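[INFO] parsing input record for Uracil-DNA glycosylase
[DEBUG] input buffer:
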Amino acid sequence: MTIPSPILDALSRADASWQPLLTAGLNAMSAADATYLAQLADDVYLPTEQRLFAAFALPLDQVRYVLVGEGPYPRAESATGVCFMDGAVGSLWSSEEGGGLSKPVNKATSLRNFMKMLLVADGQLQLDNTAGAAMAAVSARARSGAGSHIQTLADMQRKLTGQGFLLLNASLVFRSHVAPAKDAKAWLPFFEAVMAGLAAQAETVPTMVLWGKIAELLSKLPVMKDFPQIAAEHPYNLSFIGNQQMHQLFRPMQLLKG
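[DEBUG] output buffer:
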């Protein structure tokens, strides 16, 4: 089956170690629906700039966790092809006197709640007091120049990939005129083929970290029996801040430490 050239060209963003698995995944998609990729190649979707497979820049043998979100951000400046990494966010901390997290972080609800979850897990915030003066005090320490905290979302991405996180979305595309669940369903054969290859090649099978209802659907795929799994509500839910499983997973990683 012929994979459209715009889709194949996007494979250049992926590390060479993933190329055979990604091609197998695309062939599996074509076998399940011979028209989907051709229609997608002619459509308007996010992410732009051939970043469809940007999440796979991390070499396969470095993957320790596969964090699965729902889909790309629905804004061109935010959708990077990497789960949860909002391209519109630079600094994590507000530069305003008495400010807490930066305005772009606060606008990105999931990222805001993820940051607060990390701060609670680390003991820098109390679960019943994650805003106002308490958050401002953390921000002031972070911006003090002492090097105690990372400063940007790019720093966060480096810390996560340094811990072996493949930051993947259940659906690799967002289209404003297509229901996200429909695109996610179309990418299931791709996900299953790629994850089967990962399980077969990995020295230690990575742990799946599944966020949200679309990601939860993946747990029903036959290939998922080969992976340890941790599931949580999507971070856009306030309850995510206090999720004990997330605290236990991320606390030892010290992701906010500069």
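[INFO] The mean pLDDT is 95.
[INFO] shutting down worker
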